[in-house]
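A reminder from the course coordinator: this example appears on the midterm review sheet, so study it carefully.

Given structure:
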């Protein structure tokens, strides 16, 4: 059965156009929620479903490769949930964002003007700070999940799930390539930021193990909180309100740049990779690979300040990952082309169907009967 759905507004307009004579004229079965199908067992088309039909969240995001999309950059359809008003969407988006990032915006401005002090302390200072960072990460997930669930958004439709394969299971190769895309975006954005930045985060004079513990926890919190709140929650909520994609992209990028204001003009580089992150999420419906990449990116920067060889290792790993992703992509293209090549016939009985659907076996055709049926063998 098709998993397509219609909004409440369109369904309401359809119900308003129905014959007012009642169930008898519309073919509505007693006690049913929509007009009875003209053929038993065959559902109505999508445009004839009523507003009471509930979309199935388990069908989103769609599996990688099915159904076929017009372009490689095509995105997922909106999450299957009832529409909300733009006013409610922006109240939730801005309220949650300010709750987690208002202090960071102020601190970033003070850092840009060189008024924010460099971090310093010991185990007694950084241990509770580490706990605070981890608590904030858990709180961000809890708040966004609870608020989204009130609007019919599940964990999967919020983006807290991995991309799926058409045959079921996790699309490991697609998730891996998504992470590599994110790394490339971060490298390009970092180059732009480094060329334009007029400020940077202050670092302590002595970086001991206590500070390293704190920065690792803050890197994990940054990956979880930023990708959950500023990406998944913002994009999903605004899409549920029916906002245009250009508006959603602009809001998500501006919010991401606002708490990176300590870079000054270098925030342009932040905008570059933030926009690519939005596209990756819209395409796959998952933020899990982005959370992992964001954490490793931030953590490797702090680790390299303590151990300089980490920078060289990170560069080598990035090159190898790009190479592996390229090989994986070419292998998948070859597999799809082999599946999409028309068959020349033969005993297999398989017929060609459009990519990315596999060839479907057809029942064997009987041989032409040249003798009477009772003598056919």
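Designed residues:
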């Amino acid at each position: 059965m098709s998993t397509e759905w219609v909004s409440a507004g369109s369904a309401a307009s359809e119900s308003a156009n129905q014959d007012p004579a009642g169930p008898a004229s519309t073919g509505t079965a007693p006690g049913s929620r929509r007009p009875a199908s003209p053929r038993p067992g065959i559902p109505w088309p999508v445009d004839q479903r009523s507003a009471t039909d509930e979309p199935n969240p388990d069908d989103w995001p769609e599996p990688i490769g099915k159904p076929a999309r017009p372009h490689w950059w095509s995105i997922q359809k909106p999450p299957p949930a009832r529409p909300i008003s733009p006013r409610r969407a922006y109240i939730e988006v801005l309220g949650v964002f300010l709750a987690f990032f208002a202090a960071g915006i102020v601190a970033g401005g003070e850092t840009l003007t060189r008024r924010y002090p460099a971090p310093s302390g010991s185990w007694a200072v950084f241990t509770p700070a580490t706990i605070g960072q981890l608590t904030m990460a858990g709180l961000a997930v809890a708040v966004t999940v609870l608020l989204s669930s009130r609007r019919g958004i599940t964990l999967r439709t919020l983006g807290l799930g991995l991309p799926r394969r058409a045959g079921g299971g996790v699309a490991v190769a697609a998730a891996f390539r998504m992470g590599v895309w994110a790394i490339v975006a971060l490298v390009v954005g970092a180059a732009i930021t480094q060329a334009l930045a007029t400020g940077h985060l202050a670092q302590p004079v002595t970086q001991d193990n206590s500070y390293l513990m704190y920065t690792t926890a803050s890197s994990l919190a940054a990956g979880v909180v930023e990708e959950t709140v500023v990406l998944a929650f913002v994009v999903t909520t605004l899409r549920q309100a029916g906002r245009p994609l250009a508006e959603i992209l602009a809001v998500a990028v501006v919010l991401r740049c606002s708490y990176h204001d300590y870079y000054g003009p270098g925030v342009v580089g932040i905008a570059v990779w933030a926009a690519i992150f939005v596209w990756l999420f819209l395409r796959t419906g998952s933020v899990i690979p982005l959370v992992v990449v964001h954490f490793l990116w931030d953590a490797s920067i702090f680790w390299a300040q303590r151990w300089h060889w980490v920078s060289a290792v990170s560069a080598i790993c990035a090159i190898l990952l790009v190479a592996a992703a390229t090989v994986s992509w070419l292998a998948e293209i070859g597999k799809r082309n082999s599946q999409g090549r028309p068959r020349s016939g033969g005993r297999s009985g398989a017929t060609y169907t459009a990519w990315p659907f596999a060839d479907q076996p057809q029942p064997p055709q009987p041989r032409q009967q040249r003798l009477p049926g009772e003598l056919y063998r």
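The longest strand covers residues 350-351. The two ends are 40 Å apart (CA to CA).
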